[in-house]
Design a protein that fits this description.
With 613 residues, this protein is of the alpha+beta class. The chain is 30% helix and 31% strand. Strand 31 (512-519) and strand 32 form a beta hairpin. Helix 1 crosses helix 4 and helix 2 packs across helix 3 (111-120). Mean pLDDT is 88; it is low at 1-18.
Length: 613
């Protein structure tokens, strides 16, 4: 069975009322819209009338700035909140208080920010937002929170300056070496003001509107502890005291003591591996031992030949070995003891065995015993001279000659005239004598003047002995008592050095003994050795460019009338060559050399005293 249902539209009075209701609602809505449009147009017109001014009802804190332009509003706000920039911060660190005026950190009312907020009321967002803002200001008013600004970088700079003036670095305990021991200065704690953390804290308090005109801040600085404490210094001083007890160097039964004061001079203090402890300067140890070596060192003594009255070798005296302190090795041993004293506390009386170097004599007892029966004169030379003021009346010739007498020149050894005679000083007995200075004879001005008679004599003995010749130079002008072309001058520098030496080398396998005979007016050197078969020949002097010297007389009033005084001696100018040939026992040439000498012509001068006119 099928059922059908239909819907029949309403008719009658109800159906006729619906179009009329819609018309009423539409009219109401249109009215509201027209009213809103009218209100909006009115508000827009009102806002346009307030252009450049704060809308009515706007307050900053308790200050009403309604209707004011920006300048007037700014004046009112500056007047109301100017106190924000008045005041100071008092920062107390310990017993010291530092003042920071608000003006130095630019704390003030942020008037520009407050004005920007005030002028934004009713002027931001959509038209509806602006309308609502305007209505709210007119009906209820708008309150804007006052604002304060601050230059935190300036505040940080001010606090950094306070930290710089108030911070104190810690002072380490220190130990000073004194003449009696070790003196300690106590450690002192330091302090540090953490100004960066304080900057954040103070800036936050100054950023509050109710910050007082006098903001007091008390800071507790950080305590800085020294790295070297009093306890560490005391421990180091105790170790140093143990180290600085006397040290005894020994060699057999001989001993030498290094005093405590000397050892204290080696010690300093430093932090090594995090520990403050005494440190020994190895350089200072070696320097002290070099000084001590003057007591320890002993020069070797050569064996000596004993002569009979007829100058024959009849015996010897025994040689004695010398010794020298081995400074580097001894210093190492001393440092080991000092280190042990500081760490393990070894006995302070412990001795150190000195490290010594044996110095053999040039002529040992054994060699001398073998050579003595065979020693004979090998060569000799004698010079005769006039004793006078120019040679210290013979002293300046005799003294160096007798100093050399007894010297043994070992096989292969070089002999140096100036080194062997030692310093030429008046304290050793030398006198003022003559010398050739700038080409002229100068009397009584030079210490040791005239000793060239000694050096020339020994040179001629060595030359004729067939030995290798080293340094040699002729005089400025020829002196007649010397062999022509075979003189040998020696010159010492002003500071005691060697300007010109006379030297020769014993190039034979046998020792050479130098014996001298010297008395005023004569000097003789004789060289003794084991005959070696050498034969020496000297050529006749070859002379060229000869120019005869002469003497003149000059009158002067500087000496008594009628007296004479020779101030320069004549000498012939010439160039001279002498050749020496040395042959061994087989006839082979061992040495061959030519000695050249240039002598300047000298004009002798005799002063004749005359009366003053």
């Amino acid at each position: 069975m099928t059922t059908t249902t239909e819907t029949i539209p309403a008719t009658g009075a109800a159906g006729r009322r619906l179009p009329r209701l819609r018309t009423i609602v539409l009219a109401f809505v249109v009215g509201i819209i027209l009213a809103s449009i009218s209100a909006a147009v009115g508000l827009a017109a009102y806002t346009q009338m307030q252009q450049g001014r704060v809308l009515p009802g706007v307050r900053v804190g308790t200050v009403d700035i309604s209707g004011l332009d920006r300048a007037a509003a700014a004046d009112r706000l500056h007047a109301a909140y100017g106190s924000y920039g008045q005041g100071h911060v008092l920062v107390t660190i310990g017993t010291t208080t530092h003042e920071i005026p608000y003006s130095e950190v630019d704390r003030r009312a942020d008037v520009d920010a407050m004005l920007d907020a005030a002028f934004a009321v009713g002027r931001g967002g959509s038209a509806v937002d602006q309308a609502l803002g305007t209505v709210r200001a007119l009906t209820k008013g708008t309150d804007i929170q006052p604002r304060v600004s601050l230059d935190t970088s300036a505040l940080s700079s001010q606090l950094a300056a306070i930290a710089e003036s108030s911070d104190r670095p810690p002072v380490d305990a220190q130990i000073k070496v004194t003449s009696r021991g070790f003196a300690a200065t106590p450690a002192v704690n330091g302090s540090s003001f953490d100004y960066q953390s304080s900057t954040s804290e103070i800036a936050a308090r100054l950023g509050q509107l109710d910050a007082p005109a006098e903001l007091k801040v008390t800071v507790t600085p950080t305590v800085l502890v020294p790295s070297i404490t009093d306890a560490a210094a005391a421990q180091a001083a105790s170790a140093a005291a143990s180290m600085s007890k006397p040290i005894v160097l020994q060699d057999g039964k001989e001993t030498w003591t290094i005093k405590s004061a000397t050892i204290r001079g080696w010690i300093d203090f430093a932090v090594v591996g995090g520990v403050y402890a005494p440190q020994v300067d190895p350089t200072a140890v070696r320097a002290s031992l070099k000084t001590l070596a003057k007591q320890v060192d002993r020069q070797p003594k050569d064996a000596k030949f004993l002569f009979s009255n007829d100058n024959k070798v009849v015996g010897i005296t025994a040689s004695v070995s010398g010794r020298a302190l081995d400074v580097p090795n001894t210093a190492s041993r001393v440092l080991e003891v000092l280190t042990a004293r500081a760490t393990t506390g070894l006995s302070t009386s412990e001795a150190v065995t000195a490290s010594l170097i044996t110095k053999a004599p040039k002529l040992t007892t054994e060699v001398a015993q073998k050579s003595a029966p065979l020693m004979k004169p090998i060569s000799s030379w004698t010079t005769y001279y006039q004793s006078g003021l120019h040679n210290g009346f013979g002293t300046n010739i005799t003294l160096p000659s007798m100093t050399i007498s007894g010297t043994v020149v070992a096989p292969g050894e070089w002999f140096s005239y100036l080194t062997t005679i030692g310093p030429i000083t008046q304290a050793r007995g030398y006198k003022l004598g003559g010398a050739i200075i700038d080409g002229h004879s100068v009397e009584g001005k030079t210490i040791g003047g005239g000793m060239c008679s000694s050096s020339t004599t020994l040179f001629n003995a060595a030359l004729r002995g067939g030995y290798q010749i080293g340094a040699r130079r002729n005089h400025y002008y020829y002196i007649a008592r010397y062999p022509l072309g075979l003189d040998a001058t020696v010159v010492e520098t002003n500071d005691g050095g060697i300007a010109q030496d006379m030297s020769w080398r014993n190039d034979t396998p046998y020792p050479v003994l130098i014996r001298a005979y010297a008395r005023p007016g004569i000097v003789r050197f004789t060289l003794y050795s084991v005959p070696n078969g050498r034969h020496v020949s000297l050529s006749r002097p070859t002379v060229k460019n000869f120019s005869r010297g002469y003497t003149v007389v000059q009158k002067t009033t500087s000496i008594p009338a009628g007296s004479r005084q020779q101030v320069e001696y004549q000498a012939n100018g010439q160039d001279v060559w002498v050749t020496r040939v040395v042959r061994d026992s087989s006839g082979s040439i061992v040495h061959q050399e030519t000695y050249y000498s240039h002598y300047t012509r000298m004009i002798g001068i005799v002063l004749l005293g005359v009366a003053k006119s």
